[in-house]
Amino acid sequence: MDEIMTEKEQATALMDKYVDLQRIKTAADRDKEIEYQIRTTKAKLEALGIVTEKLDK
Known about the structure:
- It is a single chain.
- By secondary structure, the chain is mostly helical.
- It has a domain at 30-57.
- It is built from two helices and no strands.
- The protein is flat and about 40 Å long.
- The N and C termini lie far apart (30 Å).
- 0% of the residues are buried.
- The model has no long low-confidence stretch (mean pLDDT 92).
């Protein structure tokens, strides 16, 4: 079933992305922050049933 995001949902998703990028930009240990962002995003995707294995490098 296709679900279309509302403007408010799109704005929220973009705000979250912006905040995540700002966290990476200002992190004392960027590599550690990037790994944290990857883990949390992967968990969110998997909770929605999206397989991430083929995306991993």
